[in-house]
Known about the structure:
The complex is a heterodimer. Chain A is of the alpha/beta class. Chain A has two domains: about 70-195 and about 335-420, Response regulator (Rossmann fold, 3-Layer(aba) Sandwich), CATH 3.40.50.2300; about 195-330 and about 440-445, 3-Layer(aba) Sandwich (Rossmann fold). Helix content of chain A is about 40%, strand content about 15%. Chain B has one domain. In chain B, about 70% of the residues lie in helices and about 5% in strands. Chain B has helices at about 10-45, 50-65, 70-95, 105-125, 150-170, 175-185, 185-190, 195-220, 230-245, 250-270, 275-290, and strands spanning about 5, 10, 130, 140-145, 145-150, 225. In chain B, the strands form three sheets. Chain B has a two-stranded antiparallel ribbon. The longest helix of chain B is centred in the N-terminal third of the chain and has 32 residues, at about 10-45. Chain B is globular. Residues about 1-5 of chain B have low confidence and may be disordered. At the A-B interface, α1, α2, α8, α9 and α10 of A face α1, α2, α3, α4 and β3 of B.
Amino acid sequence: MLNRWLKLAVVVFVFALIAAACGNDDDDAPAALEPTAAPTEAPAPEPEATEAPAPAEEEAPAEMTVPDNPDNGVTSDSIKVGWMGDLTGPTASSQQFNSHGSEAYFECANRDGGALGRMFEYLPEDDQFNADNAAINFTKLTEDDKVLALVGLGGSHISTQLQPDIETLNLPVIGPPQTIDIQLEGDQYFNNLAHYGDQADLAAGHIGATVGGIENAVVMGISLEVPSGTEFAAYVEQSVEKGGGTYVNTLYVAPGATEVTAQMVELQSGIDEQGVNYVTLHGSPGAGLVVMQGMADVGITDVPIIGIHGIAANSIWTEGPPEVSDETFGIHSFLTANNNIEASALMEECASLAGYGGEHLNLNFAHGFLNGYVFHQAVERAAETGELSRESLTEALKGSFDTMGITCPIDWSAFPHHSQCGAAFSLDAASGGMVAANPFAFYADNFDGEYGIEIG
Amino acid sequence: MLLAFGNFTADPSVNLQLLIGGLALGAIYAVVALGFVLVYKSTDVLNLAHGEFLMLGAYFALTFLISENLNFFLGVFVLLLVMLVFGLLVHYGIMRRMVGQGFFAIVLITLGIATIIRALLLIFYGPTERARLDLLPQGSFEVGGATVRHVDLIIFAVVAACVLLFFLFFKYTRLGLHMRAVADDIEAAAAMGIDPDKVYAMTWAAAMVMAGVGGLLFGHVTGAIDRSIEAIGLRAFPAAVVGGLTSLGGSIVGGLVVGVIEQFANGHLGTKWREPVAFSVMFVVLLVRPTGLWGRKDLERV
């Protein structure tokens, strides 16, 4: 009997400890911005391309209506829209914010009446960054749910794998969280994140501005050892050398690596022997933190870093070694709510409404939010043709869209559908959100529009 | 002067840094390998969840030492106590029912435990990465142009102390003797009045405590604490096999050997060679000495 009570006590004790651990975790969550918080210095919002209705403010005109089209996700009471990406896998710390941003937008839009007399039905599917899971999810979304479009499709290997099916189904994909060459070649992709080539151009421009001209730059790249890492490094090399700078070489880090001693040895040699004065970084926030900790451990704290959009995550600055993160920037294409933009209040409000309070300070959340907003505008534009289908939505997307200041004006009327827009971001400690070192316009002249790089 | 031959370099300071980095990595591998050995030596179970156990230790260390901000020694005590209780739960809740089952069935159970731990950590802590721990001394000093971190020296000392403690425990304590007896012949041990159930329970508890120590130490040297750190279990596996899955001392030597080889492969051949070289060493050792360098060869009557 005593034995049984002892075991019961042990179980209760363990669960009490787990509960304590979880409760405590909440204490660490970033606090939401106070409504009265002073706006941080933000890039000047770009002029908006079109006058589109803000979902929280205006309802769709009463006369605008379309017949049901259940094969394309338009039922009598809902418009189905899918999201595919990594919610619990290795890149979830980035991608989950994209999904939350879209979800928050649709929560607000539904609160305000939805569109065309219907509610948005948001269907996120988690693939854990696994292409096999993604294929199953894609089948579910397109054959069972029959979604009208996808807002987000995470993973370059996944978008590459699904490209033929997306074309066959004429399924619009709005704002995937990566922009690789194959997405520029597809008529169904509507990209609003700067392409890797653009991000490399932007990095070179930022480096040049920092070191007194790109010709003074001596750059070493550190990339995750995945295809996109090689691609980004090749673009950086091209951009730096085109401007007269020196690109020394690329160091690769294995996915899942927990330490980078060997890479730091080589970086230190590059600094000592070749005068490396800038590092470009490719990878997820976790990989970025490993590299930054490695640099701090060996005392490399005075060589600045500029990373791809994966590095532009709040955790790089909140969790990384400050002596390194002080000199770190991450490239991204969107502005968070702490910046003084038209979407600020709405983004914060919708984040809270959806249960994601505080996430409006994350760049990927802003991206997901924008994707929802663009989808909403496109749905209403497509409805003007008298029907809402994947075909009419695709055609409607080939135009200009309001962005509420979240990114540059979007104009997908020309092919390929992408947006050359980006800036170098870091964390603003006062607001807890991300801020750009310079406005989007500052970097606009750096984009050369050259894509499809040959990787040797 | 850097004398480079492709990726190869004869620069002594570079190679010294790789050696030091390899020993530091090897010390972590040794901690993990010690956990593998402890369970295998006493229960004949190949516990493939040990990386997750260690990850659990790292996350609990975050909770008790950083979030709860407990005094370091109190926090470590609570951490190890919780891990010990989890060890007992693993035994009484799951592994006890698997005694006498087939080897692969039990291995699959450990994989299931690993999956559950990963899922629970995702649910309770979320996917966002956290900064590594910084409670142990963070400074460093230079030797021959190479950087040596204080925390690495502490890890060496702790690992050596753990090996010594377990050695003394197995050799001189009653419970240690019982563990060895059960591992050698469970039926004979039971006939002598030893309760195998209690012995197994203590083994899992000890392995969990060791994982707690490992998580605390690894949490100080990994770049970030997130769910990817469970991979340390797989990466340390060659160390445990090279040392011999039944040898406590072998685990530390195996860890250091594999850590250094991996680091030199990374530094001289490139990061893609890191794991193939480590696992190749394991294959070679298994081909030459199937029980590992210091493993015990079981004799079976025919």
